[in-house]
Amino acid sequence: MRTLLTILPATILLNFSGAAAWAVSPSAAEIGIAREFAKSTLTGTNASPPFSFFYDGKSSAELLPTWNVRRQIRPLDSGRTEETITYTDPKTGLEARCVAIQQADFPVVEWTLYFKNTSGQDTPILADIQALDIKLQRGGQGEFLLHHANGSQAQVNDFQPLLTTLSPNSDTTIAPNGGRPSNGNLPYFNIEWPGAGVIMAVGWPGQWQTRFVRDATNGLRVCAGQQMTHFTLHPGEEVRSPLLALLFYQGGWIRSQNLWRRWMVADNLPRLEGKPLQPAMFACSSHQFGEMIRANEQNQKLFIKRYLEEGLKIDYWWMDAGWYVNNGSWVNTGTWEVDRKRFPHGLRAVSDYAHARGVNILVWFEPERVTPETWLYNQHPNWLLTPPPNPGGQAYQMDWRLLNLGNPGAWNWLVNHVSGLIKSQGIDLYRQDFNIDPLYFWRAHDTADRQGITEIKYVTGYLAYWDALKQRDPALLLDSCASGGRRLDLETMSRSVPRTRSDYLFEPVGEQCHTYGLALWLPYSGTGFLDPVTYQKETENYFGPMSTNDEYVFRSDMCPSMTWCCDVRLSDLHYVVLRKLLSQWRQVSPYMLGDYYPLTPFSTSKTAWMAWQFDRSDLGGGMVQAFRRSQSLYEAARLKLHGLDPQAKYRVANLDAPGGHGYTGRQLMERGLLVTIPNCPGAVIVTYKKEN
């Protein structure tokens, strides 16, 4: 990735060469490449499978040609076809079943492996299951480039884009930390070579691993799967692998990221009443009442009332950790009953109050982590996984336990109990947090001949739990939180969105960086906004001094999902400004679900400018968000836009200034848009709309 930076008097001319102006719609050639891949590896009569494993010490490459094969095809909908390929070992009865999905409208192929013991005795050892094992070959020029990203670790550089050159004879392995799938590294990858590439996602809310092995010439072997598998299967037992998704593309890598975003919106983003999620505004009082430890029915109603009185119309009221019976700390999870001392009429009194005013309810849960002196801890120790004796400084305490979602008794109780609470308390959006590293619990529970089984059954139970909640309440929405954004794998993101993408909150530089990186992969994410007045009056300022510029802070936080954390009991908040900012967010937030183009390099420096563009060709418009940080010397930057119709004329307007100017798409893409920010720090939003 190269960046051309030319300094003009008080102006930066930014021509970010990573962004290409190709049309974003998939080409027939790209869809053809995906179909050819599926035929050669999955659906064709002589297909060479894109996965591998060892069974009884022999490789699948050696075994599968000797096993019986049957194929079944069924349409899922107008755009997708499912094909199931089942290989059966005639000697032991082991079934290896690959369920593959092909897309008609996108160059995407997905598949998941299942292994089932159909015999009456334990199988030989099944090991080293690679849900993806393929060889890529490029031409003689250029090199393989791997675009990937940091995961979440509550840092300013969460989701930072990374670029690794896969040089000859190199061996690159990437995995998360501790069993949460985006803890440290995101499970999304873009392998680029001159003129083409493939995007890869690992859908596994557990401990995945990817490996990129370069040979000495032009080949690259790519493997991905659960990090550790070495087990026998009992009679009748079935397990699954991670979901793999590949998107094939031609042209530049930024264009491919927008193909990916479009596919995510079309086929993965959760839907409400049959339509993809729209941007939503939340509010909470977590920072005023110690999450909800000091919250009660009266103050929750008061905050809802105050937001609405001030013209800050919210879509959801957020009821955070601590509403349940506990020992005075929200961390004391395991008794999932409403604290009737503070909520004598249950949470239902608050949800009824909100619903009557057109506001929905989000409620926080963390069912997996169980702490001492709670109902689950005392009544059902048989449902709980204990940690290993030497935790090694991982993210848990020795007296914490993990509710085993692979245990049928625990799973049934959890589904029935939580779905009952959702119904009885009037909950519209279920938020699941996960503040514990599960890997060490899983592995401590495995025997030598069952390594990986506890994780598989746990992951399968977790996904089935969410599916069961949705089955019982189809209108229910789900929110994934795991100490911020540490559970952002494709399986989880096809069921939910992360409304707190990182626990590094509020600080503008970090929020800008998080949007910059994560928007390449997820079209929908969220964060919180704490206004400067509230921030200065909080007893705990999380990240040191913060700008007093409301516009700069709010615009740094802008996402499809935002949560106000303001103390609306205060009379000296800048309510006029806040109402203006909310109105502007409602105006431009639909653009955030469109195509995304970084317009500057990524930087955590306070001297930098950062900017990006969201474009909605279906709406004939889009916006540019630009930020001048606190130590930047430059008042203006010229930003070259992307994805526009070069012949069309666009009306360009700064949201803070009256009027606007007309430019052709060619002018905006070739010469660039001059953006001036006199404030330091400062933020500007520029919209553009195609004129008829």
Superfamily (CATH H level) name of the domain at 280-593: Aldolase class I
Q: Describe the sheet with the most strands.
A: 10 strands, antiparallel
Q: What is the count of helical runs?
A: 15
Q: Return the CATH topology of the domain at 280-593.
A: TIM Barrel
Instruction: Enumerate the spans where pLDDT stays under 50 for 5 or more consecutive residues.
Output: 1-12, 15-22
Task: List the defining traits of the structure above.
about 20% helix; TIM Barrel; seven-stranded parallel sheet; 41 strands; alpha+beta; 15 helices; globular; about 700 residues
Protein model, in words:
- With 692 residues, the chain is of the alpha+beta class.
- It has a domain of 314 residues: Alpha-Beta Barrel (TIM Barrel), CATH 3.20.20.70.
- 22% of the residues lie in helices and 31% in strands.
- It has 15 helices and 41 strands.
- Strands 5, 6, 7, 8, 11, 12, 14, 15, 19 and 20 form a ten-stranded antiparallel β-sheet that branches.
- Strand 5 and strand 6 form a beta hairpin.
- The longest helix is centred in the last third of the chain and has 20 residues.
- The N terminus is likely disordered.
